[in-house]
Amino acid sequence: MAVLDAQGAVITIDNVSTVATTIGEVKNFAFGDGAAADIDITTLASTAKEFRQGLQDNGDLTLELNRDPSDAGQIVLLEARAAQATREVVITLASGDVATFDAYVKSVSTDGAVDDVITGTASLKITGDIVWS
Length: 133
Known about the structure:
Layout: E1 10-14, E2 20-22, E3 26-31, E4 38-40, E5 51-53, E6 60-66, H1 72-83, E7 86-92, E8 98-108, E9 119-132
Antiparallel strand pairs: 1-2, 1-7, 3-6, 4-5, 6-9, 7-8, 8-9
């Protein structure tokens, strides 16, 4: 089994011109946490609850960031959120494995604390399939 390194991963988001812009200062990411819906197909003749699997929901992409107001990728995140725009997101791992999907930006937070840098979190809702190549 191959173990993939997170170090060296690059995450891009398309800007208005559909140009891939790297999101800088990403500390960690998590994505694909969704689940399929349960469709209840129980009838009066059933002896127990019966279900069928519904469509897959690929969940969210969550980015933990060192906030940088001059970073082009972080600016695109804010612009996409304000425009309520769906954008293509690409995660390229150091191994060369690539995940491509569409998403819209749900939120971008900014957090500060004593003896710390300004950090934040961006939450993107994945819409459609995640394509691995």
